[in-house]
Design goal:
With 178 residues, the protein is α/β, with parallel strands linked by helices. The chain has a single domain (3-34, 41-177), classed as Rossmann fold (3-Layer(aba) Sandwich). It contains six helices and seven strands, in the order ααβαβαββαβαββ. It has helices at 3-14, 18-33, 54-58, 73-82, 118-128, 146-155, and strands at 45-48, 66-70, 87-90, 103-109, 129-140, 158-165, 170-177. A hairpin with a 4-residue loop joins β6 and β7. The termini are far apart.
């Protein structure tokens, strides 16, 4: 079974527990990374692998402009239960259902460990971003080196603006579409 199918099955089975198990650590990632960029109230944001919509909860002023994409239907259902107004889309990160150049920010918080091809997902993020649009990527430091992710971002034509080790378990990268 491939990584995406395994991850989808695992997240479907644990969706009701996700926020209790991982909510605090995800919020800590947002608290470290989000203040590094400026987000306007009108910016369109795609949260790839956003599951239950924790980023939307965190960015309350932007919640009407965030599209949470995930392969786990059960995670999305949990998010919709919490946020009736949210935009929850069951979608594959390697074939995002958005037109070219449509958003200002694409976020990948701890998603790549669940993908066979993070490069394909990054190219979809790049395609969806407006020129000079921003990308945020965090990866589990025990599975990815900083150099590997920098290489992937560069290969997909992102300009890396900042990279750092977070206080939690991830490396974080902020980049921009050329």
């Amino acid at each position: 079974m491939n990584k995406k199918i395994e991850a989808t099955k695992r997240y479907n089975e644990t969706a009701k527990l996700y926020d209790k198990r991982y909510g605090d650590i995800q919020i800590r990632k947002y608290q470290e990374v989000i203040p590094e960029i400026t987000i306007s109230d009108t910016d369109l944001i795609i949260d790839v692998g956003g599951g239950t919509g924790l980023l939307s909860d965190y960015l309350q002023n932007n919640s009407k402009n965030i599209f949470i994409c995930d392969l786990s239907f059960e995670m999305l259902k949990e998010g919709k239960r919490k946020n009736k107004e949210g935009h929850f889309i069951c979608a594959d990160s390697e074939a995002l259902p958005f037109r070219n150049d449509c958003c200002e920010l694409v976020c990948y918080f701890s998603v790549f460990q669940n993908l066979e091809s993070p490069d394909l997902s990054l190219s979809e993020g790049y395609r969806s971003l407006k020129p000079k649009g921003r990308i945020i990527v965090t990866v589990l430091s025990k599975l990815f080196t900083q150099e590997i992710l920098e290489e992937m971002l560069n290969k997909n034509e992102f300009v890396i603006e900042k990279s750092c080790k977070l206080a939690v378990e991830d490396f974080a990268f902020i980049g921009k579409k050329k």
